[in-house]
Amino acid sequence: MPAGGASTRLAQRAPRSAVAAAALLAHLLLLLLAPAGAVRTDLVGRWLAQPPAGVSEARPRALRLPPLEEAKADFVRAHPEYGYKGWLDKHWYDEVGLRMPRGGHYIDFTGSGLYTNSQLRAASQELATHLYANPHCTSPSSLLVDAELRAARDMVLAHFSADPSEYAVVFTRSATEALKIVGESFPWSAAPDWTPPRRVPAGGVNETDPPGHQTAGCGGFEQGAASERRSNFVYLRANHKSVLGVGAFARERGAGLACVDEAGMEAWLHSPPVSEVGGVDDGFATYSLAAFPAKDNYEGRLYPLDWIEKIHARSTRRHKWLVALDAAAHVPTHPLNLTEVKPDFVPISFYKMVGLPTGVGALVLKRSAAAALHIVYFGGGSVLDATAEGIWRMLMPLPEGLETGTTPFLDIIQLKHGFSILNGPMGGMHAINAHVSALREWGYAQLSQLRHSNGAPLLRIFGAHERGAHHQSGIFQFLVLRANGSAVAAPQVQDDASVASLHLRAGCDCNPGQCLFDLGILPEEERHRALSGDLDKPFITVMRPDANGTPRPVVLPTGSVRASLGSLSTFEDLYALVTFLRDTYAE
């Protein structure tokens, strides 16, 4: 597997788009015309648009990699856990490489997993030799599908070591739909003095705050006794926006919203518990929901799974706390054992795990939590019986009672072929995690050493890589910096990478909370950018106080670049990424 495309030079770049060129010109003019020291982007200390003082004196040598074959041999000797005992190197071309342009490197596994040609052939063979039909009757073809669906549910439960008497698998079209089920069905309780919000126009923009109000940042959460009868939705800033959408249901129904950062979550979970004082015990409990990702899809941080038990421990007799653990980005590269940790709701996406099929996800949920959900809509196979008069219905038992409409049964049947690769030649999730962790360790060591000739860093890498594999996954989220510290537009990096046959992703990766925080953009600034029609611009100019408190213009990037590893990532992929960044951007 050659590291083709990695030696692309600045002179070989694809032409810039008009938007990117205009943004770059504005950026350079601002750097030239602003007073000395004015153009900085050190808001909350996340990154700098100017090189730190003294870097030009150090002048560390530019990263020099040995030739690919030598570098890989050294890596494999140091990391025998790489490659599933030789299976990946032996079969990669036949399983994946045949579909990829020569010299191509796919490094966007958090966006989508890749399927193997073996599972594609197995799925095609199965569909060519079996007759499958709608499972909502008792014909032979329908009964065959029913048996396959039961087997698929059992397979998913076994994969996550979940007790079938405690957990159920509800098939959905995506992890997003799984979260939507939770949000719209959760038993939110409003405060006694709550009034419904003004309706949002169809396809419009909701007024989150009154005019002139500055949104508070994400921090901590204090649960007071006064909130005993009001639901709360506590969510980590680093959540995917599909989790943020759950908060739209909570807000619509009068629940309190609390956006927290990691420190805020820890502070809440270690604060004294709220005691039940007074009040009338009417036999009904108020339910609140806390949501966080096992692995955030932007920085790739891994969050403590012991939060689940600690959140449950905040429950009282009259106020119950449930947990939604977003595992969509986590489970493609990490094991999740639902015997050891017990979240109430776990949304997952199968194409992120095994590449094929798309359009199938699941909500793995506790049966006890399902009993608290308030199901309104019914239709299709979720209904055991119904009458037209009075809109009366009796739902199917769990899990079918939450699956409105006919499930994509032909797609669900194909899942076993992907899981057979994960648990067969790859050796299971622990082996996959070890493989990815080895690549991450080597990749971070190389990427963090990239420098310009003046000693300034080439990249600003986000996340917790320096804390090791227990805190950081195989995601590299970064900004490419020029020698003067200013950022290269993220879309330009993606365009350059595409010319070099590298598959990367640029933007905020559906994670606005952590992305905007890392880039230093305030919520109200992002809203103004969106309402002004400037979402396609790679930079934003905002005002920030300088050292003397005088407001000065600051240029901030509006997105960054993500390279993410997965079960089928190779050493060659990372080698190509490192050499591409060095050869294309180092000055």
UniProtKB/TrEMBL annotation:
Could you tell me which Gene3D superfamilies the record lists for this protein? Answer: Aspartate Aminotransferase, domain 1, Type I PLP-dependent aspartate aminotransferase-like (Major domain)
Q: Where is the Aminotransferase class V domain?
A: 289-452
> Record's SUPFAM superfamilies?
PLP-dependent transferases (SSF53383)
Q: What residue range is the signal peptide?
A: 1-38
Q: Spell out the coiled coil positions from the record.
A: none
Entries under InterPro entries matching the protein: Aminotrans_V_dom, PyrdxlP-dep_Trfase, PyrdxlP-dep_Trfase_major, PyrdxlP-dep_Trfase_small
Which key words are in the record? Signal
Supply the name of the protein. Answer: Molybdenum cofactor sulfurase
